[in-house]
Amino acid sequence: MTTTGSLAPGADADAADPAAADPAAAARSALPAPYLRWLVGAQLGALGDAALAFALGWAAAAHGGAAAGLVLTVITVARTVLVLVGGAVADRLGARRVMLAGDAVMLAATLALAAAAGVLGTPLRLLLLAALVIGVVDAFYLPASGSMPRLLVDAGQLPRALALRQAGGQLAALLGAPLGGALVAAGGLPATALVDAASFAVLLLVLLLLPVSDPRRAPAARARARAGTGTGTGTGTGTGRGTGTDRPPGLLREAAAGVRLATGDRLLRAALLLAGAAAGAVLPVVALLGPLLARSAGWGAGAAGLVAGAQGAGVLVAAVLLARRGTGAGPSRLGAGTGAAGGLCAAAAGIALLAAAPVPAAAVLGGLLTGAGSGLFAGRLGPLVLGAAPDTHLSRVQALLTLVQSAALVLSTGALGLLADTAGPRVPIALCALATGAAGVLALASPVLRRA
Hints:
Layout: H1 18-21, H2 23-28, H3 33-61, H4 65-93, H5 95-120, H6 124-152, H7 158-209, H8 217-227, H9 251-264, H10 266-297, H11 301-325, H12 336-356, H13 360-388, H14 394-423, H15 426-445, H16 447-450
């Protein structure tokens, strides 16, 4: 097995390579060392980011709830507006280059934030500027990092590779807030920003030492050269005006081409719709509706924290099991689409239990089941989307996945919050259970997802 990139679907495999001849053997083999090194660096960066996110939220809360919401909104809006362009840039320049640039920018930005916060304190304008930088960098960084597993592991290992990444990300999320709280207590926002800067420095070094560049940039460049400035888009071939293949298409056109490809592919279209439905119906439950339920039922903040922790633990357990089993046993023997649909059905049962929970213990159990189901869903759908994306559009498909999930989450969070104010939190939680279950059943009934 080489470490210069995975074999693309349909690519020629080396007949003498046991992993190429036996996909199951490839799935059981050890993950490549370059991927594991990158993953360790990426999860260290995620831990630093989670700590900084807590510190920014804490500092913004001192200016009032509206200010704290504005800081979070700036990050989300900047990321959502630019993410399709970010995917096009990563496909054009290469994921590794974009990540190197993003880590360098964030290293400089977090050092500057630490210095500015040490001198000025935490004025709202400084927090908003930091949020804007984070959102813009995320828009370019997330599609690039999302394509890295496909560049560093064989196709048969993608489920285990992504499940291990999901487990590490969930662990970073669970530890990030306590770490951020400890750092804020010890040294405020400047100390937290310095720790995050150190994590970016480590990740920058890891990326520089990776023994690969981007093995798919060459075919991507050839595809762009063949495309010229619009071949196949209904706008002509670019001949006759001196703009044929001598100039690559613009970033906006490349971003639009990624959208057309994903929406025109039956499997990608179905998977993206399912991801959007899951984001809109599952993610707001624990983050928004769980605390509202605990408050309205008089359970207290401790119970809300236990529910959120149980949900995170469920995601972590599902991700670890998928990473260990790969494609060998248990739920992973299901097709990717069927496994994702089953995960949504399990999450729906957990959400329904949360909606009807008479005591905190039942709510914690509901959170655990919700997390396990959503972890199984993500662990099965992620490899499906990444594996179905053409080599030349890896980052753009990841960008569209981020956009679909972000847009669904923003729309549903506002609507569910308003409904909770008027009808109480149990009603929107029950609606989320129904929506999640319906999405799971429809996915099970979809021939294209069942065959995936």
